[in-house]
User: What shape does this take?
Amino acid sequence: MFDMIKEGNKMKQWIARACEDSNKVIIDANGSVESSVIATMCVKAVGKANVILVNVSYGAESSAADAVSLQSYLRTDIIQANSRPAVDSILFTTSERNNTATKRGMVWAGDIKKQLVEDVRRTTVMAVTREHKGILCNTLSLSQTYLDGLTQINSGINEIFPAIGFTHGELIQLGMILEMPESLLLLNNSTEFEHKHNIKFNILDDYIRQIPCGISPKAIEKIEDTHRKTGELLSNNIMLLNTYLPTGSEMF
Assistant: This one.
């Protein structure tokens, strides 16, 4: 394993260099541990006056409260938006256009609702980045991309990936080194990923780092099968991105 204190200092310097020509650093404050740790690192790298948190939630989601807690800790600017009116309007309009019965239309809408919420969130974050002539700091970790693949805004804006070489657990370690409040390192947003894949982050992280801990053959099969489906292009695309990779870290 690599030296987290050393890598944390190197990441901070890398972020400062990557952002030196940008007006603002934009963070998608989505309620995850990853976004909280990287936002804290960005503040240390470029100063709180140069960081803007953006939270786009569908209604009264926990991520909105988590973003406010993060903003209170970091004392940065924050932009919050509720995507529910836009999402519901699109779903209703689409349902009406297809002459679908209300009940059936809501069922159909439910199948695409989650993706639509995500699309509105990304579009809003992109718009804020452009408005402020800033750089978007993507907070995806190695653990997330290992199973979900790479989600890049990539719409004519500058985007950096400082966390993509670190596992979920390693970012928590980094947060502890930064002496972040425990509440920001235990955000419940992370459980959505675990429920989606039916696997705990600690098991996934141990597999990625090849730490012998008695992972069941079933869990290994599930990880490898999902990674084959979503991670095939990662190793080819990763070096094309503006990424920080820890020394000695074998990603894929």
User: Anything to note?
Assistant: The chain is about 55% helix and 10% strand. Confidence is low (pLDDT under 50) at residues 99-109. The radius of gyration is 19 Å. Strands lie at 25-28, 51-57, 77-82, 135-137, 158-161, 242-243.
